[in-house]
Every structure is written in structure tokens, then in C-alpha cells.
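Figure 2 data, in text form.
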Amino acid sequence: MIEHLPVAGDRLGDTQAISMSDLFDVRRRELIEREQPLAARMRPRTLDEFVGQDHIVGPGRLLRRAIQADQLSSLIFYGPPGTGKTTLARIIANTTRAHFIAINAVLAGVKDIRDAIEIAQERRGMYGQKTILFVDEVHRFNKAQQDALLPHVENGTVILIGATTENPYFEVNKALVSRSRIFQLKPLSEEDLRKIARQALSDPERGYGRLKVQIEEEALDHLVNVANGDARAVLNALELAVETTPPDVDGVIRIDLAVAEESIQRRAVLYDKEGDVHFDTISAFIKSLRGSDPDAALYWLAKMIYAGEDPRFIFRRMLIFAGEDVGLADPNAIRVVTACAQAFDYVGMPEGRFHLAEACLYLATAPKSNSTLGFFDALKTVEEEPEGEVPSHLRDASRDREGFGHGEGYLYPHAYRDHWVAQQYLPDSLQGKTFYTPSDQGYEATIADRVAQRREAQLAAMLEGEYTAVPEILTFTGAAVDRQTERWLQRTISNAGERLGRLRERVLSRAGLQRHHVVLDLHTASGLLTWEALRRTPEGGVYALARTAREAQALQQMAERLPELRRPFILQGDLQHLDALLTAQTADLRFDAIVGRNALMAEPDKGAVAAVLAKWLKEGGKISLVDAIPRHTQRLYRLLPSGALPSALEERLQEAEEAIYLDPENSMVNWDAEDLVTVFVRAGFQILEWQEELETAEHRISPALLDRWFGQGEDARPSYAGHLRRFFSADEVAQIEHIFRSELSAAVVSWQTKLIYLVAQSGG
């Protein structure tokens, strides 16, 4: 069945006469709306009425911007029941200028899809109007139905909006998924559910605002708690409570805890033995065991049993865990779990829950080792590397010892002290390769030293040519050394990209970015953090502060290659004007995370900047920064080889250069790491971590760099030579310059920079 919803600017409806059947349809809809359950009547009609899901429809989020701009592409809303999937589709219907058609995949067939496509084609051809096709429970479409829809989504005949409680990556045609943006909706918070319930009690048109309803706080708490994040559940329970409770003598309907408990008695646990929640819950259980958290492990175990999960499935996963994650750290783990599984088969439910709990607690509290994963490293080596021959002395000697000498030279370990002797066991091409790494936990810790000692002895024997074919071992050793030497020789200034990549990863990972977050990059410069932040927040957004018009223009040119809704918001100015820039852009926005590289380094008033950042960072949001500390930058005089300068001149040069970094009026050098931490503490931040780190990188001293050092200076800052002229005569400066150029021109040097990594949280 196809449902046509009224939309803004529906020109076709304006030009056609209203038939009698249309009037009956309108009357029928009015009756249905009046007789609808409370949950349906209270369905929000606009984004402003919508409660919850701020991670996708909050200020600054991609979906909200797309709805408000009427620039929707195909979407799939995925989440538990009662979280607002259908409601969001209806809000889109109320705001879009496109024609809106809704079908339910449970009731619709291929014919309904074809009818909808025909209407969409007619609208597009006659009026140039787009059509949005909303498919509720889209995962219920079979492959043929989804295939029938695909070409029309692909060519733009319809814009698909699907809603599903199942993971679309598994339940929806991959081609449809690849052409759609997926938004995951989460269970509503308790505060969201309270707000929804109070709206229903106060709304005189669609709710109970015309009645005198008084609900006790503990009764509302019960409804909200048991509803478990489902808006429909809390509204259904509230409706039952109001409709079945007679008013007292004053005409007041009083809902106390007893009434609330009657209205909603048992928490509905979302669990599907073949769906996402099944896999997510068992994943949480295993990860809690791995993390040695017995409380969390018991909770997830209880949730699975409460929801009706097969206990034998849980035991199978615990048996796998005993081998994969406990392993030799506690060889008894697999025995205990096996015994508990057998006991459960004897006893059954409900008493068998004791054996489930015992196995769970044993694994959670056992020492952990994943050394058995070494098998898969060995398997990968077998798959990817040339096959290594069995060493001659390890081959079967029973058949061809005389002809080929197989088995000749094998040393029988039991004939030696401690039943062990150093000899070659791996193929020649794999000598020195390790697959097993003992952990330092439990029983395995007792054998780790022994394994290491024996490996060292075997390595020494290999290098000295004992117990092995000497030429083969020497050849292999030489090749290994050559490879190491080659890697060392190739390590030049080209490692800058790798170094910056590590820095970027560290800053952004500490910021805890999620797909829906809105992020502020305090100093976009080359876009090092901006573009990666944009990739990590596809349903959120990124604001980037460019200090100069040139930086802003370069960023804008790069952004033009992206779809309009995915581009970063580019602000131009310095940190002192950040508050005004953001207020002009969007006054009601608050950032989930703020990141920056060398953003505060030269700021004269870092305290004022920190206060502004505290204002624009939402409660609980994180700021993650890395700044070079100029006070501890590489000293140029240390780059010169010893004896390059006369000793008297060398000593004076050291004093003159150190004086540059002792200027209390210079905002570049008058601060240290502790000063920056103090600034953020005073601004109300909670410091989560901070660390100084000395970074060493290969740096080429180019002629252009030497020109900058000994030139006139830029941006009103004196050059290196400009500083030296305060302490040296012109001839002495010229002498120093000559030595620098003769000793360092085109040289590759180790350049040291001290960095501070700072992570703080608002509301500390």
C-alpha cells in the first residue's frame, strides 16, 4: 500500500480538483488520527519538537543541515524500536518540497514499488519535482524487491529513506547501502523519555493537557526506567495508566507508583538471536572477560540468559576464549570451562546457571595470554613466503639415510642435560623468525625466561656455525644485515610524512572523535588535522580556523572537491577573534572536540584563549593539542661540528643564542609546558593527560634556510642574524655566517623539538 503524505509546495495537489474519494480519504485520516494511540498522536512534526538523537540531528550535524537545506540524498535510519526512525521520515515529509511517498515493506510488494516509481517519474517529467520514497522496515524487502528499487535510486528517480531495526550492512542489498548514508539511532536517555512523557501530559491537542493528571515522580521514574530507551513504550504505558485510572472526587487522575508498575511490569530487553544485539552482546561479554572485569562479564552473561540465549552457545564461546585469550597463562582454564559445560548438560536450567557463572568468573579472573595466536602468524608465513625445505638433519632417516644422508647430524635432545640442545629446527630461510611470544602472566611467566634463553642459545649457535650448515647460515645472516643496513640508509628526511602522521593520529585519537561529532581545528594551516577529522566525522562537521587569507583560500580550493554538505566550515582570523567568528557563524553550536597543532604557541594571552575555548566546548567535550615549545627548540650553534669556531667566539655565540630564549617579553619563548597546563586548569578544564616529548627528525639545511637565518627577518620578527647583531660586530656576524654556510650547507642534521601533548575535558 502506498501512502502519499502532504508536503510543502506540492504543486500537483494545487492544480487538481478534489474528488469525492479524496474527501473520504481526508475524513478517514482525520478519524484515524483522533483514534490513534498516544504514541502515534504525539509523534513530533518538526525538528524543534524532536527529542533525543542529538548526535545526528543536533545543531551543526550533517543530517540537520541537509533537512533544513532540503538537500537530502538517500538515507537509511538504523536503530532499536521507539527511537525516532519513522518520526524523522515524517519530519522530512513536513519540510521537504519533494513529493513524499511512504510504503511499509511488510505490506508492500514489487507492484507497490513499481506504482511508486511510476508516480515519481510522472512528477519528475511533468513538474520537475523530486520524489522521496520512505520504506519502513526496509530489511523486510526480499532480494527481488530490493533489486527492483535499486536502478531507480541509482538514476535519481527517487531518493530512498529506509528505516530498519536490523543492521543494514547485513540485511539490506549492498548496492543500496553503498548508495545511501546510514545514520544509527541510539536508545533514548532517561531525561529524553521524561521530556517526552511531560510533553504528552501537557499537550492539550494531542495529549492529556485538557485532563487533570498528576503523576508522582517515582511513578514517572519507573515508567522511564522500564521503558529502556523506547519512547513508544513509555507513551504506551503512560496512556494505559491515564486511561485506566478513574479521576478522584476533585477530577484529578492520580498516577502513583503502584499504577505505574501495573502499566509496565517487565523491562523489554532488546535481543535477537540472529541480529545485531546478539552479536554485540556476546562481543561485550568476551571483551569483558578479556579485560578481566568480572562484574561486567556477569552483567552481559545475565543479559543473554534473561533474553533466552542458548547457554551452550555461551559455553562454546568461553571454550574458545580459554584457548585464545587465557592459553598457557593458565592451562587449567580450558579444563574448568569444559567441566562446567559437562556439568550444565547433567543439571540443566535453572541450576545450571551456577556453572555458567563459575566458568565466567574463572575466565574473568584468570591471567591472560594470547600467545596461541602465534599459530596464525606461522600460517600467514606459510601462505605468503616461499616454502622452506625441511633441514636435512630433521628429515625422516628411516628411508633414505644412506642415499641422501637424511637425518644425518640430528642431535637427540634426551641425550643432553635438561633434555635440550641447541640446533636448527626452522627452514634456512626462516632462521631467526619467532611466532610464539610468551606473556608475563601466570604459568606462562615461568616458562618465558626459559624460552628466551634457549632462543638466544640457538641464535648464538647459528651465528657461530655450530650444529648447522655453516655456508647457509652465513649467507642468511649476511642478507639480514644487508636488509637492516639498507633500511637504515633509506631513513632520510622523507620520514617527515610518517612523523606527522603519527602526530596527527595521536592528537585525534586522544580527542575521542566519533562519527557524529562536531570538531573545531584551531589552526588548520596545511590541513593536517582538518581533513582527517572530516573523514572521522562523516555525520558531524568540522570548523577550521585559518590564520591567513592564503591558508583559507588553499583550504577552500581543496574543499570544493567535496560535496557541499561535507565541506569544512572555514573561518579566517586569529584566536583572539575566535569568539566573534563563531558567534557570527552559529551562536547555538557547541563543539564535541577541539583539536590543534601549534595553535597556542605564539599567543600572547593564552588564558583568554583558554576561556574562549571553554565557552565553545560542550560539557564533557575534549580538547587535544600538540604545541612545539620554542623555548626548547634546536639550538643552531649545536649543529656546528666541534672546533668549527674559535673557542672564544664559540662561547660568546652560545651565550648570545641562549639569550634569545630568555626574553620575558617575547610570547613565543616566555612559557613552558607547566605554564600551558596551568592556563587550562584556571579556565576550568580537567587535565586528563599532558606529556612533554623530545622529537628528533632528520632535517636538511638548504641554502634557502640559511638565507632566512642570516637575512632581514619576516613578520616583524628579527632573523637569527638580527639577534646576533646585538652581541657581535658586523665582521663577527659575517664570520659566523661564513662558517655556518661552509659547514652546514646541504647537510642533513638531527633536529630536536620539544613538544607538549595536552588533553583536557570541559567541566572539570
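Caption note: The chain has six domains: 2-184, 190-263, 276-368, 373-479, 496-600+611-619, 631-761.
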